[in-house]
Structure formats: C-alpha cells, structure tokens
From TrEMBL:
Pfam name, any one: Aminotran_1_2
Top class in the EC scheme: transferase
Claim: Transmembrane helix is one of the keywords in the record: yes
Keyword field: Acyltransferase, Endoplasmic reticulum, Lipid metabolism, Membrane, Pyridoxal phosphate, Sphingolipid metabolism, Transferase, Transmembrane, Transmembrane helix
SUPFAM superfamilies the record matches: PLP-dependent transferases
Pathway the protein contributes to: Sphingolipid metabolism; Lipid metabolism; sphingolipid metabolism
Keyword Protein biosynthesis: no
Protein name listed in UniProt: serine C-palmitoyltransferase
Protein family: Belongs to the class-II pyridoxal-phosphate-dependent aminotransferase family.
Amino acid sequence: MSTAASYLSAVKAADARARARGETPVATPALSFSSSVTTSSEDTILDDGEVVSSDALSYPTIPPTSEQVFSTVHTEFGHCANAEYRYTSQHPAGTPVKPHIEQDPPYYVLFTTYVSYIILILFGHVRDFTRKYFNPGEFKHLIPHDGYAPITSDFDSFYTRRLKARIDDCFSYPVTGVAGRTIVLNERKSKDYNRTFYSTGRKVRALNISSYNYLGFAQARGGCADAVEESIRRYGVSACGTRLEGGSLDLHAQAEALVARFIGQEDALICSMGFATNSTIIPALVGKGCLVVSDELNHASIRFGVRLSGANVRMFKHNDMNALEDLLKEAISQGQPKTHRPWKKILIIVEGLFSMEGTMTNLPVLLELKKKYKFYLFIDEAHSVGALGPHGRGVADYFGVDPRSIDILMGTFTKSFGAAGGYISGSKAVVDRIRVRSHSHAYAEAMTPPVLTQIIASMASIMGVAPALPTHGSTGTITKGRIVEQESPEPYPGRAPASILPSWMDLPPAMREGTEGRDRLRRLAFNSRYLSRALEKLGFIVYGHDDSPIVPLLIFNPGKMALFHRLMLQSNTPIVIVVVAYPATPLVTSRVRFCVSAAHTKADIDVVLKACDWIGDVLDLKHAPGERWSLEKITSNAVELVRMESQKHA
C-alpha cells in the first residue's frame, strides 16, 4: 500500500499545483509511451504535470484531478470527467430494427485471399513430402505405429503445422497483472519459426483493447476489490465457511437472488463455469422428440449442449427472421421425422450479442414470432448482459421489452462483471427443474466466496443499492438457501434491496448510489459507437451493431492479419488486439476483433484509430464505400459522430 499511497499523495500535490495556476483538467489523454520497456514496478508517480516512472512509462502532461483517482488507478481505468464523452445505449422506441448488411470487399481482395490460402497449402504439402522422406521420425505421431492409431488426424495436424504455426506469435501472449485499460506483456521471441518461444526478460505495457472487460471491473483496487479482500478474510479462498442446507454458502443464495432481480426474472441459478452453463443446462430443457432451432453462428457451448440433449436441431441463417419463420412453418407442418408426430416442444436459441460478428439479435421480431408460433425462447447473453441497455440489463433492456416475456435468459460473469461462471434465469418452475436435472448444478464444484463477492459487488454497483426499510425484525432472512424479503422491492429495473447484499459488504457511496455504474455504462456506449463509426469513416469494412462493444474490422487476407497484429504491437503506443481467422470465422473473413471497455478514454480510442489509419494504408485495408473523413476531422468531431443517425444498417 505504500506505493499506492505515494501515488495518491503525488496526485493530490500535482492537482493542488495545477489548481493554483488556475488550471482545472477535466480529462486525461491516453498513455504516452516514451519507452514501452518496463522493469519491476508498475505504479507511477506524478510530479508537477508529468509522471516520473521507474518503469520508463510516461503519462500525458496534464495530470488527473485528485477526485478522479481515489477509486481507480489510471492504468486500470482511465480518468475522463468530460460529460460529453457519454452516451446511453438504447434502441429508439417505436422504430423497427434495421437488418445488418455485410459489405463485400472488391473482387481482387477475395481473389488474392483465396490464392494466398492455395499457396500456403501447396507449399505445406511440398514441405511435408520432402520432410517425410528425409526425416520420417518427425511424423511418427501421424501414422499407425506399434499397434497404435495416430492420436490426431493428418489434416488437423497439417493445418496446425503449416498455417497456424506461421502466426502463433499472435496468440497466447504471456501477460502479467490486471487486464484492465492497459496490460503488461512478457516479451517473447522465437528462433525456430514459432515452434518454441523464449522469454527476453522485457516487459511491455500496452493499451489493451482485446479483453472482455466491458465495464472495466478488472481492477486490482477499488470498491469491488476491497469487498473481495474482506470475503477472503471471512470465508477463505475455497468454498468453506458457514453452510446452509444443500451445501451452499449464504453468498450463493444472495448472488442468485441478486441475479434474478438484476435480470428481471423470477428466479436464477448460478454455475461455476460459463461454457458448462449452456452445455449442461440445455439437455435439462430438451430431449428426444424436441426441436431446437439455432442461429447458425451460435457459440460452441450451445452446439455442444444441443448435441448432448438428443433433440433434433435445425439452423437458420444468421439473424434472418424471414428464414426463421419459413423454417418454423415447415417444422411445425411436417412434425417429427418419419412419424410426423407433433414436436414435444420447440426451443429457439439465439445470442443477444454475437461475439464474432458484433451483431444483436432482432428481439422485437423474435417476440412477435413467439406469440404467433408458441415456441420457447432461450437467449444467451454472455456478451450483452451488463454491456447493453440504459441500465445494463442486456438486450431486453436495450430494446425496452419485458424480460419475463423471454423464457430463458442465460449469461456469464466473465465479461462485464470481471468474475467467473454463468447463470440461468427464468420462472421459478423452470429454474427448480434445472436445479434437479442439470449436471452442472448437481455435480460441479461450487463458486468460491471471492468470485461470488465480485459478482455481488459489481452487479450492485450497476443497480445501486436501495436503503434498508425500517422493520420490526430483520429486513430479510435466508430460508433453505433462498432469500425471503420482508420489504417491497422496487419494480424492474430497480435498485438492489439492501437485504440481498451481505451485511458486512461496505461499498463506497458512488457504488451504492449507482452513479459509478451508470457512468461506466455511458462511457462504454460512447466508446463503442465512436470506434465503430470512426473506423467506417476511415474507410474500413466493419461488421456489427453501432452499440456493440465488439467491433470486428475485416482484413480478409491471412497474411495481412498477422502483419496487422505485429504492427499494432510495434507502434509508438503498443496496442494489444485479437485477430480471428478460420475455423472461428469463414475462410475469407479474417478479422481484428476490438473489444471496447468503459475503462478506455476517448483519447485511447484516438490512439487506436491513429494506428489503424496508418496500418490500413500500408496494408490496403480501406475498401468500404461511402464518405470518408480524415483522422483529424474524426477526432475533433467525435461527439457529433457518436450522436448522428446511423447509416450502417439501412
């Protein structure tokens, strides 16, 4: 704490000097890296308008005000007090949802992309042929030997060795510290063409636009971190402590009650793993004789769960409601295969926000079809809950619909809440059935107290906490692991009742009042729209919805994908990004997937745009039609760009 204390003291002193000179800074730009090499310390100390840092990192010349840094550290959560850099994520009431139209690049881009893959495959086979002849021992694991079959297929191994290995330096980069606004990379190099890597011993602090830290709760300091530390002192690290019936802690019951209130459903169930939430709960909902209608771009956890269930599955074109209705008409009229008996039930599964495309499900039309065809609706909100809507409650909040009109709402805590695990919410009857039939609830390990505390603290800070009402007895009791409230809860989307939170949890005033959570939501909405629209104005082909915190920038050519990643990391301000290619995407739609956070400042987005503008010209990536703006015009008209009506989905 001595380093943090000295940091705050230096900030106060620098702020006092700035105010004495008549300066009142309202925002700080992004980190300016005079040198990206770090040594041991990751904290910085402000000194009269600039930062003197033992790790050779420098802040901008204007320091943040002292009020801004008491709850956050600038490297973890950027300071920005400019109220103009805020926006509310909400679909305009009464307006139809415009379909998203994917733009195609020029034909020469598609042609050169296919040619690139052909060259890679041809040269790969030539190399395999020669090496199998001169060094057969290298391929021993791919052929039957000593009575054993090959453990992997030759095709899978070929793709890994001859295509993916060429860009392995773009993946699985070792990091240390908190994956907040910035992140520290442990630099590595390879001397054998990415077969093995060795550490250089250097540490590089880079701007992080690659993590699912949508609301910026990935912090080592702050109200949530303090609550987690207190939970460790009370409960320990593992799931041990005062237990209730059924083997659950009081924190489990409190977390489930809070999740149900946050989502707006009657009840909720939490799981210790997000992937297992889908893959083990879907088989508890459907089985043989049931039909699952799934979006073609649904997550692997959904696909795996449907396979385990034994239900019939049909897929429809991504987010195409006309194709979905045609499929429903055919499925209902024909019934089950061979027997043509009516389906026992029909379950439609979609994602609220698709993680690779950045597109949102057309929820208003889905609900209209639900009323017409009487199916059950399951929405995976792993990426949308906490990140969309004026209250951060997900796609139902974003489109202004009643969440109880959706049968099952699933989500995870690994993105917006900075924790781990997932949840299922719905009616009490459905959730009670899942408690009995779901393998993840009956057999999986329980969430640990620190993770539960992080969920409760972050979710409560988004909602705000309603003060406890005076009663003759306690404001709430726990019976058989469930919260029984004695006070009238606020209607959805209301604040969290104080009775749901642990009595020992002492959140800072800004978090209890909900002001910090609302500010994070509005900062995320501004940053998302600004980056998406600015990239379009620069001439890039960008997928996804304007309000999506996932912004895919299309690169197409696999060679350009690797070079884009390396150039971003080697720029004046190192930037960490995520590149995605086949098989996670179609073969010719390799992309960069920017993950925007409330922790980023407007100046951070400017840094990303500056790097993209330069690299886009070098690699010939600007293929989008329409009006183009200069980088200077974009950065100086950011507020206008964010608030103008979208032309993207028209």
